[in-house]
Amino acid sequence: MTYEEAMAYIKKTETRGMSLGLHRMRELCRRLGDPQKKLSIIHIAGTNGKGSTAAYISSILGVSGYLTGRYVSPAVFQYEECIQYEDREGVHYIDPELLAALITRVASVSEQMASGGMEAPTSFEMETAVAFLAFCHWQCRAVILEVGLGGEEDATNVIDKPLLSVITPISRDHREILGDTVEDIARHKAGIIKEGGTVIAYQREKRIEQVLAEQAKKKGAALTLLKKDDMMRISADDRGMLFSYQGETFRTGMSGIYQIENACLALETCRHLPPPYSVTIEQQISGIRRAVWRGRFEVVSTEPLIILDGAHNPDGAKALAESIGQLLPDRVRHGIMGVFRDKEYEKMVSYLAPLLTDIVTITAPGERGLPKEILAEAFRRNGCPLVTTAQNVSLALKEVRKRCKKEEVILIFGSLSFFKELPWHDFYGNPIKERENS
Q1: For the chain: N or C, fewer Cβ within 10 A?
Q2: For residue 149, what pLDDT is reported?
Q3: How many contiguous H segments (helices) and E segments (strands) does the chain have?
Q4: DSSP E strands: which ranges in 131-259?
């Protein structure tokens, strides 16, 4: 298949929907030669912070000289970002030609399974298998594997024994699949814990820590829980965070108050890597500074200041609200938001509406998108002074810019799904490169 044909094939398979369970994935991998068994994997689950934590780990390992693969979901700006590797030179997305070749190989096996009377793999399962093959092709020394949904029955959990299991803060999300209570959700996500394994986690609630401790004990796994008291913020602005962790000082290139927790979880993960992995404190400092994860309190313009944040659930919205309040305390703030209908959008709005001068709501793409009119009504109920709607994010941004003064702020947040529709040609400069070089 050509690249275009491969992309069309993956798009077509999305109609198979989502189906948890490992039987299809195990058979798909078996027929491909079990590439996952040839990899050294750091497996990450959680509700919020998975992407940023993975970015920090990848950056630290990259600057330490380890060719590090990374599997991300979902893609935000371009499909190729799902499968990437990092080295001393930085982050590299999978080449379109290699991607097409690997999709062709996986598609062939998938079709053989279907023609033999088996249930065909889902698009996510095929993408995960493609990622395994890519990491083997690159001969990655380590792989950071991000769970798609949940943990226990997620396609990524086909791996047998990871180097480490990492669990970021857990909250209520995907309740229709993972359970109504946060404890039920935590048990699903703790499904990545393996017999006799090592688990690194940071949680904000004692009841979730208790669930993880119970699940680790059942598996005979060693659990390390980070302590909030070990993290201390020194200073913060829209260009990054200066903080200390267990007495050492670090600076992030990513902003957002929540990045301190993500960075500390990454540091603890790298410090628990078994031999022959070795990461010095200087490499940890450099890796934390270099890490970039787009769409998370990302500055894409400076005059006016425009910030993107993928706050797509209540905890994400609360974290964004805290960052706004602490990093932009005296600024006039304009908002643009779109979100999926299956999220607790009313709670999200309650955190953010009091902080905004005005909001333009849009409908997030796809069938899951919450109608912009319903979202607008939620902002009106929560007291936002000026609420309007727009057909898409480009028109919303055009509208907001008309009333935004040079010293004011535009915040674009909610579902990551519409970020790729932004008019990137209108943004000037390259804040990411500027941060990397500063």
Answers
A1: C
A2: 84
A3: 15, 17
A4: 142-146, 164-167, 198-201, 222-225, 231-237, 240-245, 248-251
Give the burial class of 139: count Cβ atoms within 10 A of its Cβ; 0-12 exposed, 13-18 middle, 19 or more buried.
exposed
Q: In the structure encoding, which two tokens stand for residue 355, read together?
A: 């902080």
Q: Indicate yes or no: pTM above 0.85.
A: yes
Residue 45, beta-bridge partner list? 167
H-only helix segments in 119-202: 123-138, 175-178, 182-189
Residue pair 312/419 in contact (Cβ under 8 Å)? The answer is no
User: Is the distance from CB of 249 to CB of 235 less than 8 angstroms?
Assistant: no
Residue 45, SS3 per DSSP: strand
Strand intervals (E) in 266-374: 298-302, 305-309, 333-338, 358-361
437 pLDDT tier (thresholds 50, 70, 90): very low
What's the start-to-end Cα distance of the chain, in Å?
42
Cβ(212)–Cβ(201) under 8 Å?
yes
Calculate the alpha carbon distances from 133 to 38, 112, 123, 420 in Å.
10, 18, 15, 27
Q: pLDDT at residue 429 above 70? A: no
Q: With CA atoms as reference, report the closest residue to 316 among 414, 216, 214, 175.
A: 414
